[in-house]
Amino acid sequence: MTSHVRAPQRVGTLPQLLNRLRMRQVALMLALRDHRTLRAAAAELGMSQPAASKMLQELETALGQPLFERAGRGLSLTEAGRCATEHFHGIHGTVEALTQELHELRSGGAGTLRVGSVMAASPDCLTEALIRLKAAWPLLTIRVEIDTSDRLTEHLREGSVDIVIGRVPDVTRRDFIVRPIADEALSIVAAPGHPLAGKRRLAFAALQAFPWVFQLAGSPMRDVVEQEFRGHHTPLPGGMIETSSILTTTNLLMRTTMIGVVPESVALRFEAHGLLRVLDYRIGHRLPSYGSIVRRDRPVSRSAERLLELLHERPMPRGKPVRRAATRAA
Hints:
This protein is α/β, with parallel strands linked by helices and about 325 residues long. The chain is globular, with a radius of gyration of 25 Å. The protein has helices spanning about 15-20, 25-35, 40-45, 50-65, 80-105, 120-135, 150-160, 205, 220-230, 245-255, 265-270, 300-315, and strands at about 70, 75, 110-115, 140-145, 165, 175-185, 185-190, 210-215, 240, 260-265, 275-280, 285-295. The strands form three sheets. The chain has a five-stranded mixed β-sheet, with helices on both faces. Strands 9-8-10-7-11 form a five-stranded mixed β-sheet. It has three domains: about 15-85, Arc Repressor Mutant, subunit A; about 110-185 and about 290-315, D-Maltodextrin-Binding Protein, domain 2, CATH 3.40.190.10; about 185-285, D-Maltodextrin-Binding Protein, domain 2 (3-Layer(aba) Sandwich), CATH 3.40.190.290.
């Protein structure tokens, strides 16, 4: 157990580090991160406390820096420890996914592909690509998670998804391979019987008389909406509802006088089925293009590689409704 600060040592080359790093050490680090005591971490892994202490010392020697320091009766991560556990969490997710896929292959399946997507891509390009992928890989299990880009890229970093269709912040872009797919416009929507439905040339002030449903703070869509409010020198409305769920958003809008912001492709589909109405106001700011995102430090599976090919072939989506003209408010 680390009880004093040691001078940092030089970490060896990658082959040397791989030779010295063991998965049991990775598991110990993650257990220590969760429990913060060596006794509890050792108990979780079914090993003695002296053995866990020795293993931690060996890991710190291999990495050349102390990973924990005493904090009362427990342990606290050092900066090096936080860095290591972040990467070890990704290793754990990768091994977990490998174990699951190998099990499915032994059972006669074709493995599992885990996809994360922003909701704008789901109705058109993702759906079409998945249909074509299943035609070629009928036994492939596909798991699709719809969420905001910031949360999905974190899941990609952790190894719980294989591909993300979304956006990455510039500060983390170097960790991923990103290929643009399409632009995404946003629409302000409300229930078909909303007082503003059907009115032309809405001013931004007219929208302020009604409660709003927003995406969660930190998501790219929320950032664009906040820019719109700042551009009109207007604070965000009080009493808003925040959610990343498109189903929750649309259900709230259909049953109240609330208004919300959703991707244009989603808005038009709901409008075509008479469930929502696109209000005649054009948001001045736009989201950056969304694209396919994979980790730079991890090879993709054959099924993931094929899905990427299909996503970037850009087939024309079926039945996409034609957007009516909208006039941006002055």
